Amino acid sequence: MAGATGAPTDSRLMILDVDIRHEQGAFSLQTRFRSDGKLTALFGPSGSGKTTLVNAIGGLVRPDHGRIVVKERVLVDTKADVFVPKHRRRIGYVFQEARLFPHLNVRQNLLFGRFFTPRRERRASFDHVVGLLGIGHLLARRPSTLSGGERQRVAIGRALLADPQLLLMDEPLASLDEARKAEIYPYIERLRDEGGVPIVLVSHSVAEIARLATSIVVLSEGRVAASGPAAEILRHTSLFAQTGLAEAGALIEAKVLRHEDAFGLTVLQAGAGLLTVPRLERPAGTRLRVRLRARDIILSLRKPEGLSALNVLPGVISSIEDAEGASMDVQLDCGGDRLVARVTRKSVAELGLTPGLPIHAIIKSIAFDPEAVADTRPGTM
Ligand SMILES: Nc1ncnc2c1ncn2[C@@H]1O[C@H](COP(=O)(O)OP(=O)(O)OP(=O)(O)O)[C@@H](O)[C@H]1O
């Protein structure tokens, strides 16, 4: 289990170091975590304190006690009486609603973003940001003529052009339907991989954080329930018991090996072995982030035969954890890929499952839905 402090895995620059206490009416926020991730997701049920935490990082909430350090710059230190006001923090905000100026066109809205940044500190190139977000064809339009997804892309562009040290996104996709969300995910992925600005994303959706996050902080009733690399956190399904349990599971990296056109299939190479999925329109060699949900994995003591499932991976049980109710999480090591299967307590007993036991993981190919697969680059998991 990842520790509450989410210790960094290498000497990369620490993006966020938060250790605060704050009372807000009857609610008490007491959070301590560190993250070196390019995209840190703050996840938790409604009322768990995500927005309060984001507001404390952004300077909209002044914590009663503690420290907030962003990229080694101390923004809050109550003991030393440090509180950098929000306009000096160099932090960009993107909210659920785009909040663009209705009387300005897209270009003017974007340029407004850099208005408050001193000229010598302006590094983000207008053309680069416009290209990254795919909004070049919208520059002359007014916000009222844009779709919700386009508006959010402009809002992200405006925030980026202010040259922030950190971009805070508080449920930026919550007001969009699934189709609009799917349209905007690739832009957030590009931003994460090529934008050069670390992102903190508040989200309710496990599918969303599984696709986008490199680090995850799980909040529960104002406390950090767990924090660490996304692939590590998502494997502990009970952390997602209240919301999105069905979506929790393993994240692994795979490469497109070949297409089997006659069957409409694509074969991926993962550390664990070959995975066959419905045809993906990506060229051979493309690296993908693949999500294997814990509920979609069945365990077998012997190599199964005469089975319609295409994906059977050999592995070894690394640990078994209690999960909700009658379930247990069986953590697996399949050729270096860490998988997790959610099985009943009864199956664990009847099959004699125990750490060290060789096992076969049968993956229902349905687990590879298009939303579960996203292009990735080395080092983004
Ligand atoms: N100004 C305030 N005064 C008193 N209590 C507040 C105030 N603002 C928020 N709260 C309470 O603090 C708690 C945390 O709220 P917060 O908005 O941070 O949660 P959240 O995780 O972002 O929730 P959601 O997902 O619903 O947006 C809630 O119980 C909320 O009612």
Automatic annotation (TrEMBL):
GO CC, any one term: membrane
All copies of domain Mop, residue ranges: 306-372
Any one Gene Ontology molecular-function term assigned to this protein's record: ATP binding
Occurrences of domain ABC transporter (ranges): 11-246
Family that this chain belongs to: Belongs to the ABC transporter superfamily.
Name the record gives this protein: Molybdate transport system ATP-binding protein
Stored Pfam families: ABC_tran, TOBE
Organism annotation: Microvirga flocculans
Entry keywords, A to Z: ATP-binding, Cell inner membrane, Cell membrane, Membrane, Molybdenum, Nucleotide-binding, Translocase, Transport
